[in-house]
């Protein structure tokens, strides 16, 4: 995959590529506004030891009808592709030369919204998934660290940047988008995935 998407940013156990400005600034502005207003944003809850906790961001799930997926302990039946999401999917598929059948959309309303440390290692995603993640809106820090080694990496994800995770990365690395006091305006992140069917 490397010739298509640049140099691998992590030193071992996986592949990570950053394509800055995959979408131009004005196109991103339009896309951000459109997605913010037309997607079916939901506040999800998770249950930990029987306690109901709000997920600190809004989320929604789009994809092919059969691409159902469990995320944060919740079953997600995808909503049908919107024209805008379909167009983004096609542009990313062309660049990555791989197919995606679903997208998880996250809306971080401000710096208090976040995503905890995790790997996208659900079995529905297959052994070594390619996950392509488009950022729109305010910049946020994307933090990664190796599960058993000392390697760490911080990447700033800005308006229009595309991050691609591949290879054995989800087995060995975890990632997060921490809270920050610096950020005041919203960010949308779209993570395109391929759910293995049947
Ligand atoms: O918002 C981001 O950049 C990360 C999203 C993410 O890790 C996920 O949806 O699994
Ligand atoms: Mn993730």
What's the CATH architecture? Sandwich
Category by helix and strand content: alpha+beta
Ranges where pLDDT stays below 50 over 5 or more residues in a row are none
Bound molecule kinds, no repeats: 2-oxoglutaric acid, manganese (II) ion
Helix content: 10-25%
**What's the pLDDT, averaged over the residues?**
94
- Per the CATH scheme, the topology name is Jelly Rolls
CATH level-1 class: Mainly Beta
Sheet of most strands = 7 strands, antiparallel
CATH superfamily: Alpha-ketoglutarate-dependent dioxygenase AlkB-like
Q: In what range is the share of β-strand residues?
A: 35-45%
Number of strands: 13
Pattern of helices and strands = HEHEEEEHEEEEEEHEE
Any idea what the radius of gyration is?
Answer: 16 Å
Shape: globular
For the termini, the CA-CA separation is 26 Å
Q: Tell me the number of structural domains.
A: 1
